[in-house]
Amino acid sequence: MFKDVSSCNTYNYGDALYWDARYVEEGGSFDWYQRYSSLRPFVRNYIPTSSRVLMVGCGNAVMSEDMVADGYEDIMNVDISSVAIDMMKRKYEHIPQLKYMQMDVRDMSVFPDESFEGVIDKGTLDSLMCGNDAPISAAQMLGEVSRLLKPGGIYLLITYGDPTVRMPHLIRPVYNWKVNLYIIPRPGFQRPEGCSSSIKSYLEPIPITEKGLLPAEFVLEDPDCHFIYVCKKDDMELSSATTYGLTVDLLQ
Ligand SMILES: C[S@@+](CC[C@H](N)C(=O)[O-])C[C@H]1O[C@@H](n2cnc3c(N)ncnc32)[C@H](O)[C@@H]1O
Question: What count of other Cβ atoms lies within 10 Å of the Cβ of residue 43?
Fold first, then answer.
């Protein structure tokens, strides 16, 4: 599902009406791709719990609730589906750290510039990439994300899109983002027997080429893996930008 362009043609992921109908039909909650427990090392390492966080295209995922349970104090959740937003508002009215607003991520003008220290996107850019005028929608959304991030802020993108299809959108000079890439297997993926790499390796950034691509010799352990792009809005010269190290203790 959502793996390639053919699934875009089957489902109208870029269409608000599709999402409204889906949320009416399914109700409940569902997290696309990964749960917070798997993403926690990345979220906690790059986005302090005191940050003002924007969750773009929150849907009916439990991720934001889990983040609050983990200490996050202020998460603004937006989604184009009024059905999802109404449901989530009701569900979380007793949790003041969570706020919900119906909004198109291509126009978030209700928020002033530099409003957030962190923006999290799990599957929403992917949805836009399935819609009409995908490159324009992506540029509108990412332009808004860039505008809304404080200097030094982080855009954390969790996606099925590999660097050949995502990097061209992320490395536009106007954003001045320094991008680190991680690759994690889909939930339930079993490593082939005899495979020696340890869990720690998922926490190490992939060394990308100057063009932002995977090294030629790189082999994907899980062909259905998820890519995590950590984009840091940098005020400084790119050459002096910081790189980060992740530690296994954040997996706890
Ligand atoms: C694949 S789902 C991901 C939901 C959630 N982030 C998760 O991880 O489970 C994509 C979400 O993006 C929302 N969406 C699609 N286009 C949007 C847009 N232009 N503006 C805001 N939200 C949008 C959909 O309504 C849907 O909830």
Answer: 24
